[in-house]
Design a protein that fits this description.
With about 210 residues, the protein is of the alpha/beta class. It contains 11 helices and 5 strands. α3 packs antiparallel against α5. The protein starts with a strand and ends with a helix.
Length: about 210
């Protein structure tokens, strides 16, 4: 049996990356969502919480025992060392869980949804193709500001900490520009990538 095609999907906050991931899932791809993995690790009794408490103190946990994400976001924005300590705890755990999910997936196409793929060189080595969902910072801010609990300033702060558009595009094998695209055209762009990259059924290969 051929190894599955491993696609790394990335894009800045508000780019529409999660929507693109859902469109791949509709086509039969297995989605390995590293943000979802991180949320599980940081939930009450999550596997990352003991190490996070040791690194940052008990105050970093909310009343329910889960990571206080707002407090952690504020801390890493103000302290580069805190960001590195957070990544040192989370990244190995996320990587191990992503590989576990990949090993149990049965689809011939695995999509690794990794927001910080461009910032994590080891991810480029783990995937066969990189797809970047790209849009302007103004579009990102507009979309994120519509989410509950977010402001335009908060969105701009996150964008400033992420890789630049040029950095993401430099590692891409394909780019979907999602500025003002209606869902139908975004889906058509995903279909084009799907047809280009998906493995042929074995019966077609043998003909």
């Amino acid at each position: 049996m051929a190894a599955p095609l491993r696609i790394g999907l990335t894009g800045g906050i508000g780019s529409g990356k999660s929507t693109v991931a859902a469109m791949f899932a509709q086509r039969g791809a297995a989605i390995i969502d590293t943000d979802a993995i991180a949320r599980r690790l940081c939930a009450a009794h999550g596997a990352a919480m003991p190490a996070l408490r040791r690194a940052f103190g008990d105050a970093i946990a909310g009343a329910d025992g889960a990571l206080d994400r707002d407090a952690m976001r504020a801390l890493v924005f103000s302290d580069a060392q805190a960001k590195r300590r957070l990544e040192a705890v989370l990244h190995p755990l996320i990587g191990a869980e992503a590989q576990r999910e990949a090993a149990t997936a049965t689809s011939p196409v695995l999509v690794f949804d990794v927001p910080l793929l461009a910032e994590s060189p080891h991810w480029r080595e783990r995937v066969d193709r990189v797809l970047v969902v790209d849009c302007s910072p103004a579009t990102q801010i507009e979309r994120v500001a519509q989410r509950a609990g977010w402001t335009r300033d908060a969105a701009a702060n996150v964008i400033a900490t992420q890789a630049s558009r040029a950095t993401r595009r430099a590692i891409a094998d394909a780019v979907i520009v999602n500025d003002g695209l209606p869902l139908s055209k975004l889906d058509a762009a995903v279909e084009s990538v799907w047809r280009l990259w998906r493995p042929l059924p074995q019966s077609d290969v043998e003909q």
